[in-house]
Design brief:
By secondary structure, the protein is α+β, with helices and mostly antiparallel strands. It is 28% helix and 31% strand. The relative contact order is 0.16. The site of zinc ion has 6 residues, from loops.
Length: 336
């Protein structure tokens, strides 16, 4: 018998790609494709820039994992924006991904609503979000049309919304798992708190489309609210889905379990091939110049209302960077 450990692809000695990376993989024998997302410093940095209550931070981290999972699969250059707009205590989540691997994120929430949800023991994703929708936008620049996919949020998790989206809009059998955790790590000067997040996505993409049986409906012809036919699913997909269900949250975030090891653990029997890892980083695209240009585009009246203590102060909602201007600096040039 061969030792399965030997077949695990080796990792670069520096191991710098272990975190903040996406690993695409393929299980050819079962017509499955997928990706594993591992975020350490990326999600830690994003959440440290804000002072969100713990359940809000956790929810935003889940949204970051989902966004990275979907955005990193795009074959185009551009921007992928995931946004929720709902009536729950967390009214808005925005995650902004720029290919190939730059991400920033922020949330808007009602402090009292979140505190009440926590006190009532109902601070899970579905309860925090409430009802509304999740929008996914692909933006390839000013001269191109934007693509937007919409899915209803109805008290469910972001995983539920992703499943719904792929079933209805893309007609691809898909399973997504997201996990977020806090970690206390011993460091010089005492224990430090860190965030970690991870996820895995699995999709069934058979060459003969009739095998993806849930994909029989033509979205153009299916009336709104039409029930999907209860058809038996393909054995390969049933097997793949069952394997994915064995993934523990801890496997998605544990720094000791590499992404390669995880997919090998799951799919060594049918055989799995991993592709090149893609690195992710937390970076905001705001700059003093872009804030200045925005202020100059406002009316003089609007700018006058922004002056406080003789200066205009703008804080970036994504990264909390603060830009301060003297009113004269951002006056629009008036043609005389
Ligand atoms: Zn910023």
């Amino acid at each position: 018998m061969t030792n399965p450990e030997i077949a695990i692809p080796s990792r670069a000695p520096a191991a710098t790609m272990a975190d903040d990376a996406v690993l695409p993989f393929e299980v050819a024998a079962l017509d499955l494709r997928g990706r594993v997302v591992r975020l350490g410093p990326v999600v830690d940095q994003i959440l440290e820039q804000h002072d969100y209550p713990q359940p809000v931070a956790k929810l935003l981290a889940e949204a970051v994992v989902l966004t990275v999972m979907l955005g990193s699969a795009l074959k185009i250059d551009g921007r992928f924006i995931l946004q929720t707009q709902t009536d729950g205590p967390v009214g808005l989540l925005v995650v902004d991904f720029i290919t190939p691997g730059k991400v920033r994120a922020c949330a808007r929430f009602g402090k009292d609503g979140v505190a009440a949800a926590v006190a009532a023991g109902k601070a899970d994703a579905g309860a925090l979000l409430g009802k509304g929708h999740l929008a996914m936008t692909i933006d390839q620049g000013a001269d191109t049309s934007r693509y937007q996919g919409l899915v209803a949020l109805d008290g469910g998790s972001l995983e539920d919304a992703a499943h719904e989206y792929f079933l209805r809009s893309e007609q691809i059998p898909t399973r997504v798992r997201l996990a977020v955790a806090e970690e206390l790590r011993a460091e010089s000067g005492g224990a430090r708190h860190h965030w970690r997040a991870g996820g895995i996505m699995l999709q069934f993409l058979p060459k003969s489309p009739e095998r993806a049986r849930v994909a029989d409906l033509d979205p153009g012809d299916a009336p709104q609210g039409m029930k999907l036919l209860a058809v038996p699913e393909d054995d390969a997909w049933v097997q793949g889905r069952a394997l994915l269900e064995t993934v523990e949250d801890v496997e998605l975030i544990d720094p000791a379990v590499s992404s390669e090891r995880l997919v090998f653990r799951l799919f060594h029997e049918p055989g799995v091939r991993v592709f090149k890892m893609a690195a992710m980083r937390a970076e905001c695209s705001c700059s003093r110049g872009s804030v200045e240009a925005m202020l100059k585009s406002f009316s003089q009246d609007d700018r006058d209302h922004m002056v406080e203590d003789g200066k205009i102060s703008v804080t970036c909602e994504f990264c909390s960077a603060n830009y301060v201007f003297a009113p004269g600096e951002v006056e629009a040039k008036v043609a005389t």
